[in-house]
């Protein structure tokens, strides 16, 4: 070997180690991914993935989350490290030996790249619970080795690609919780290795694709909470070997009234079946067919439109959970479900139906959760409660007293007997309630004093005794309980003063205290500061007097304060916490100036009442008071003359405007013979249909009488139609706040005079507009544009006469914020009143449910002003103006 040859050989020997440490293609890919990370709170990647720790063999086995197979990267696992940034997944296409890619539960964004098909060896892909978006690429179907894929909890959109049937080895697919849409591809039936399929919480449409029964390995399928319509694929449920089926939260319907008879033939492999929150109709199968009910353990048919009597369930030995709530079932509660040891039933929910009859006793040793609320059950309370831990009998017609408490099980943790007809006193016993953490006896007729025993319930966190007839003082030490979080004793006849724990023994647990609507008197003690965890304090409608203690400013967690309708005097504390979001101090005798930090609330939070309390017109505090300051300088003579002259001019202008409006009203009441287009009056758009489908069902139901429950101090007259739809107080505050005054709410009334219907400043009505018959259809946008004239006001809101584009008049009642009932009860009562047909009852046409608390409207026929006699009996020779919109359309067509 010559000199040159020997030199080259030595050069190679020296350079070889350095060449071996050059970054490999895999390392470069990982470093490229690292560049997109903007926040790594634990330093899991940023502190570990660096050039200094590169292994000699080319695979950085010492890097966190990196798994090596020889010199190649075989796995990247970054789950749950709260990493933020833009994840460029395209760089992983260079990792030709990558088997597992998992970075779930982070805060990464980005998309699935089209070159994902390059990952030929990939078997496990999990990027769930991040912020990835964009479509799922068609090339995903090229990953023939992929066995598990989870894209759940992201923002992926678009359809599920047809190429998905190329994933021949896929066993688990989870794309739940995204924004995917379109019909489910028929290609799903090509996933022959599929074991678990989860497509829930997306916007998939059309029907359930046929052929799922061909997936012989399928054990779990979840298509819940999409927009799937059509019928249930009973053939799939009968012939497949699936164990877990969830089709809830869709638009599935029954093709025949007896379709549910297929439940008798359901595959014996099915142990969980959830068809709740659909539009299924018909009745359940009878008891004879139930004997062949398979091995079903969980059956949920709640929130459908099922009816008829309930079967006996006498031979269903494996059923553990039965939920049939929010349907139209009638008849009695099957006694076999509540007693004996023949069943293993653990949970039973029959709430919000039309069931009647007595519940004598509950003797089941397995039943733990029982919900029979919102039915028409009557008689005394059950003598025994079995082994129940949760017992909800609220909103029924139970009567009698609470003496059965002494015989109920010590297992009870949750008891709700509210909205019944219970009387008598509350037993002074505590041994039965050692585990009780929730007790609701509100809206009954219980009397006498609140027993001291409630203080001894060691785990009680929520106590609601509101809207009864309790008298006497608050039990000593009740407000000192270290476990109590919420206490509602409003609307009773409690008396005396209120004492709080001493300032040295702070109670951090109590968060909500409502003692309003009683007869408490005296001053509010300084020791209120001991309730330092309070978020809501309502002491309104009592007889408290004196000055508000300065210590109330130290309630740093307070968000809602109502001291209205008392006899408080002196100034408002000027350092109430900035956390305060709701305030009502009206109807007192406060004085001074409203503190600067409280001027974010409307004047209605302080007046009426408080005639000596000044609410400055500007933040500078130099404005006029509500009723004028006694110490202010009197106006000059010239100023007075100017004010009088301006008032006269303004009065003349208002009279002229009133005359013009009067003639316009007359012209609208007697329109010309111009035809009203039947097309305009009866058009039914796809938007209206889609909005109807959004009318989700709730979990409870109340009667019209409950909706119209009179408020304290009201007369015993029957509530009006509007009052029933917008009644206040049918639910206890433990289930919803009763505060309505806030800086965001503004005044409770709509605009004056001629106004657009989008008062209170939404750009347009963007909620759900529902019509209760076929006489009229229009969109929220059209209703927003309709000019409206104020007809009058009541405690429930403001009424307008709205003029539609086709000349038809409607009366629109804009309900005050906090007046409308919860959506489920509001909807049901609206439908009830829509069915009332009487010549002297104004027809209810529809309602609007908006996205904010103050956007609740009731639409009814407009009846022009006139005497009562003219409307009841008419006038000879004079024809009463038609208020029937359907008739109007026919007359003008």
From TrEMBL:
SUPFAM superfamilies: L domain-like (SSF52058), Protein kinase-like (PK-like) (SSF56112), RNI-like (SSF52047)
Primary subcellular site in the record, as a coarse category: membrane
Protein name, as recorded: Protein kinase domain-containing protein
Ranges annotated as biased composition (Low complexity): 618-632
Keyword ATP-binding included in the entry's annotation: yes
Record-level GO cellular component terms: membrane
Region (Disordered): 609-632, 672-743
Localization terms from the record: Membrane
PANTHER family: LRR RECEPTOR-LIKE SERINE_THREONINE-PROTEIN KINASE GHR1 (PTHR48003:SF4), OS07G0626500 PROTEIN (PTHR48003)
Domain Protein kinase: 785-893
């Amino acid at each position: 070997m010559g000199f040159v040859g020997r030199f080259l050989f030595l050069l190679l020997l020296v350079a070889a180690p350095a060449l071996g440490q050059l970054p490999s293609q895999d390392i470069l890919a990982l470093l490229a991914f690292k560049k997109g990370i903007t926040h790594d709170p634990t330093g899991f990647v940023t502190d570990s993935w660096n050039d200094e720790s590169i292994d000699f063999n080319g695979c950085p086995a010492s890097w966190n989350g990196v798994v090596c197979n020889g010199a190649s990267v075989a796995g990247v696992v970054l789950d749950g490290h709260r990493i933020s940034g833009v994840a460029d997944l395209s760089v992983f296409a260079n990792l030709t030996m990558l088997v597992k890619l998992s970075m779930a539960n982070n805060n990464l964004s980005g998309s699935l790249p089209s070159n994902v098909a390059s990952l030929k060896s990939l078997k496990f892909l999990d990027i769930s619970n991040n912020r990835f978006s964009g479509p799922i690429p068609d090339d995903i179907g090229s990953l023939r080795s992929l066995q598990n894929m989870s894209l759940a909890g992201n923002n992926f959109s678009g359809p599920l690609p047809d190429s998905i049937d190329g994933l021949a080895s896929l066993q688990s697919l989870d794309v739940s919780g995204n924004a995917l849409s379109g019909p489910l591809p028929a290609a799903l039936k090509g996933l022959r290795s599929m074991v678990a399929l989860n497509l829930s919480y997306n916007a998939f449409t059309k029907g359930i694709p046929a052929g799922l029964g061909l997936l012989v390995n399928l054990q779990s399928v979840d298509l819940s909470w999409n927009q799937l319509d059509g019928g249930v694929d009973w053939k799939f449920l009968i012939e497949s070997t699936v164990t877990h089926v969830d089709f809830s939260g869709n638009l599935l319907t029954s093709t025949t009234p007896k379709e549910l008879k297929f439940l008798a033939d359901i595959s014996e492999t099915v142990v969980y079946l959830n068809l709740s929150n659909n539009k299924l109709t018909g009745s359940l199968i009878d008891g004879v067919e139930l004997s062949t009910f398979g091995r079903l353990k969980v059956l949920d048919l709640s929130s459908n439109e099922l009816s008829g009597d309930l079967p006996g369930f006498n031979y269903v030995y494996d059923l553990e959970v039965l939920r049939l709530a929010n349907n139209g079932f009638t008849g009695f509660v099957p006694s076999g479900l509540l007693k004996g040891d023949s069943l293993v039933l653990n949970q039973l929910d029959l709430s919000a139906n039309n069931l009647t009859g007595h519940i004598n006793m509950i003797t089941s040793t397995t039943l733990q959760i029982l919900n029979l609320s919102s039915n028409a059950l009557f008689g005394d309370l059950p003598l025994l409660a079995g082994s129940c831990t949760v017992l909800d009998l609220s909103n029924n017609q139970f009567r009698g007293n609470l003496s059965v408490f002494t015989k109920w099980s010590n297992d009870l943790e949750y008891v709700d007997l509210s909205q019944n007809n219970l009387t008598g006193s509350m037993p002074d016993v505590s041994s039965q309630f050692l585990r009780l953490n929730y007790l609701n006896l509100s809206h009954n007729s219980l009397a006498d004093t609140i027993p001291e025993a409630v203080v001894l319930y060691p785990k009680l966190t929520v106590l609601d005794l509101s809207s009864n007839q309790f008298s006497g003082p608050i039990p000593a030490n009740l407000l000192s309980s270290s476990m109590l979080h919420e206490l509602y004793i409003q609307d009773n006849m409690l008396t005396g003063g209120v004492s709080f724990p001493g300032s040295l023994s702070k109670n951090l647990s109590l968060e909500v205290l409502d003692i309003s609507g009683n007869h408490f008197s005296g001053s509010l003690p300084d020791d209120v500061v001991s309730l330092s965890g309070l978020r809501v304090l309502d002491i309104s409608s009592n007889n408290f007097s004196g000055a508000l203690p300065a210590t109330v400013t130290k309630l740093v967690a307070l968000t809602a304060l109502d001291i209205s309708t008392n006899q408080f005097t002196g100034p408002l504390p000027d350092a109430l916490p900035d956390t305060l979001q709701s305030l009502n101090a009206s109807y007192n005798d406060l004085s001074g100036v409203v503190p600067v930090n409280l001027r974010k609330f409307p004047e209605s939070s302080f007046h009426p009442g408080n005639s000596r309390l000044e609410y400055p017109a500007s933040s500078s505090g130099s404005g006029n008071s509500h009723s004028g300051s006694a110490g202010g300088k009197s106006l000059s003579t010239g100023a007075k003359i100017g004010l009088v002259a301006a008032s006269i001019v303004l009065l003349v202008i208002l009279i002229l405007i009133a005359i013009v409006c009067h003639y316009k009203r007359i012209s609208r009441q007697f329109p010309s013979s111009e035809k009203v287009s039947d097309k305009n009056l009866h058009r039914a758009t796809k938007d209206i249909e889609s909005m109807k489908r959004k009318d989700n069902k709730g979990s409870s139901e109340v009667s019209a009488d409950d909706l119209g429950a009179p408020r304290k101090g009201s007369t015993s007259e029957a509530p009006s139609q509007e009052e029933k739809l917008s009644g206040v107080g049918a639910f206890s505050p433990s289930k919803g706040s009763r505060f309505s005054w806030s800086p965001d709410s503004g005044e409770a009334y709509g605009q004056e005079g001629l106004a657009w219907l989008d008062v209170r400043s939404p750009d347009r009505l963007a909620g759900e507009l529902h019509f209760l018959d076929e006489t009229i259809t229009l969109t929220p946008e059209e209703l927003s544009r309709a000019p409206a004239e104020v007809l009058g006001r009541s405690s429930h809101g403001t009424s307008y006469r709205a003029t539609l584009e086709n000349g038809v008049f409607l009366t629109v009642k804009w309900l005050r914020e906090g007046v409308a009932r919860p959506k489920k009860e509001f909807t049901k009562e609206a439908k009830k009143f829509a069915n009332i047909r009487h010549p002297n009852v104004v027809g209810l046409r529809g309602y609007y449910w908006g996205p904010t608390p103050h956007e609740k409207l009731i639409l009814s026929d407009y009846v022009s002003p006139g005497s009562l006699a003219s409307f009841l009996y008419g006038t000879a020779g004079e024809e009463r103006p038609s208020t029937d919109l359907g008739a109007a359309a026919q007359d003008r067509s």
